[in-house]
Amino acid sequence: MKYEAAKLKDISKVLGLSVSTISRALNDSYEISEKTKKLVREYAEKINYRPNPVAVSLREKRSRSIGVIIAEIANSFFSQMINGVESVAHAKGYNVIITQSLESYERELSNLEFLASRSVDGCLISVSTETKNFDHITRLHKRGFPFVCFDRIIDDIKTHKVSIDNFKGAYDATKELVKSGFKRIAMLGNAEHLSITQERLSGYKAALADAGLVFDESLIRYCLHGGMIYGEVEQAMNELMSLRKKPDTFFAASDKLTTNFVRYCKAKKISIPNKLGLVGFSNLDLTDLLTPALSVIRQPAFEMGEAAAELLIKLIEAKRPPADFENMVLPPELLIRGSSERKK
Hints:
- By secondary structure, the chain is an alpha/beta fold.
- The protein has helices spanning about 10-15, 20-25, 35-45, 55-60, 75-90, 105-115, 135-140, 165-180, 195-210, 230-240, 255-265, 300-315, and strands at about 65-70, 95-100, 120-125, 145-150, 160-165, 185-190, 220, 250, 275-280, 295-300, 325-330, 335.
- GO terms for molecular function: DNA-binding transcription factor activity; transcription cis-regulatory region binding.
């Protein structure tokens, strides 16, 4: 049986009032008596009537909905970020439509076309690892479609941007490993072209230089899908562990790279930190419960979501195009635990 939402004409038929009277009563028009308004509202509530969102959006010329394009909902960073987005959107009367690219350019393109065709008022986007061409975004942006970039930033688009201090996060992680006495610090990175990868690589290099350690290109491996595909991490780890001068510790530059590094070590019976140390980016709430507890760089994901949603709604509701855009950079937090403690 096909579900049919209650309509104004259903209320009109039962109460013997015109559709226009019903509509004005529900919109609290001064032309309608309080007695009639009460009658209409009570019956509308009884049959669970809700205004048609398409009709409302046509009347108001906006849908009061925002779209979100992320890599993967199962990623703890993105799920926490969505919580931040929805907390702000709900408070301001907006609905949120969430899509995931699963690190696919084609899927990101399809998601964006879907959201734009459904007339969302604007979109938050963190581009996929496969995305190198941004034409699908710039075309809509040039037509005035509001965008806010978060996490993975697109430099060429003039809009609000929300990220963390990736340089500092990587610098602090690498510095902690150096402080613990590790010398051969390998880095597992996301796709090489991404803004977050480049910034985290720069922080890693700077920490090595400040510690008087020589940067070794052979200790760097990039995983195109950012650890989402375990086989990519396994291949990168196999290559690094086959080096004549093996690494003694790792900096894992994303959530999924961190968890899959741990999975690899468990499968290969490699003890952390007795054989390999680790500091990784991770927003998982369970990292302190593992054995050993993981030293991690934690991103303020919820706050990033809040900030991105605030900026997007500000763009949507602006009476005229903004002259300036915010580039908001939030601080990460280093949590030092057992995985980065070198055993003597």
